Structures are given as C-alpha cells and as structure tokens.
Amino acid sequence: MRDLADFSRLATILAVGAPVVPLLWERALTHRSVEGTESYERFEFLGDRVLALVIAEWLLERFPDAVEGELARRLAALAREDSLAEVAAAWKLADFLIVGESLRADGGMKTSVLADAVESLLAVIWREQGYDTVRALIRRSWGELIERVGDKDPKTALQEAVQAVGSSLPRYMV
C-alpha cells in the first residue's frame, strides 16, 4: 500500500478532507496495468455518474433558459476526456497514479488514464465524504471550464457560420 502521506497530500491539493479509508484511495489511483491488484475501473464507472449529476445540476442553475440539447452539449464538453485531463493536470494527479511497468514503458501518462483516474477519485470522495464535498470540488475544479464551454459543437458552429454568409453547407469526405 502507498504511504498515507501521499493520499493526504492529494487531499490537501483537492481541498477535501483527509482519506477515511486509504485503501479506497489507493484503488482509485491504481491502473489495471498493475498486476495482482484491483484497478480503478469500477470507481471510474461510478465517478462518471457523480460528475454527470453534479455538472447537470450546475448547468441547470447556470443556464436556466437553455434547452435540453444545449445543456447536453455543454455536459458532454465538460465531461469529455480532454476536460478531465485538464483537471487531472491541475490536481497533479499523474504524481499520485499507480501504474504498471507496461504503462511506464509507453512513455508517460495517457490522457485517457488521467481522465479515468479523475472520475475514479470523484467516486471515492463522494463515497467517503458525501455529495456536498464532491460537488464543491467539482465546482472549484471545473469553474474555468464551464465558462469556456460554448453551446455548440465545432461542426454545428461551422455549418451555421457558412449558412449565415449564404454559402452552401460543407461536404465531408472520409
């Protein structure tokens, strides 16, 4: 098991309470490339839902006149891999991840691994410290992101801009 001081240091960075069950924090930070241990995948599943709930609630408050489609696009943008990886970088999460030699040999932390670990850690914090704590953490950590997220995906924005100047829609070739 990792040193409790590591988890306490991470909790300090996140501005949440100290780990109650360090074994849960260890599991939340353990990638499946580590042989003979349980990985974060089940916590990742739960953390994805915790994040979606908190973000959805926040979007309804923040954008009271937005229609469902706009809210869904914003939620998708805030919960996508690159947004999660940005949060992971702010949390310095790569310093705390427990990964196997195979992943280390690949030359560093993949964005997907960092994103998954964020979700996993959110699940553990929700489980140990409750909804209010995880909501406050998400709102602090995604505060800048929610301001930057537009209400349209790039394809829709391009199509609308092209139509606004009277041009025909672009053709996509694969």
Describe the structure.
With 174 residues, the protein is an all-alpha fold. It has ten helices and no strands. It has helices at residues 4-14, 22-28, 41-62, 68-79, 81-91, 101-105, 111-129, 131-141, 143-148, 154-164. The longest helix is centred in the first third of the chain and has 22 residues, at 41-62. It is globular, with a radius of gyration of 19 Å. It starts with a helix and ends in a 10-residue tail after the last helix. The model has no long low-confidence stretch (mean pLDDT 89).
Task: Briefly say what this structure is.
This protein has 10 helices and no strands.
Low-confidence stretches: none
Radius of gyration: 19 Å
The largest pleated sheet is described as: none
Shape: globular
Roughly what percent helix?
55-70%
Number of strands: 0
Q: Structural class, from secondary structure content?
A: mainly alpha
Distance N to C terminus = 49 Å
Number of helices: 10
Tell me, rounded to a whole number, the average pLDDT: 89
User: What is the helix/strand order?
Assistant: HHHHHHHHHH
How much of the sequence lies in strands comes to under 5%
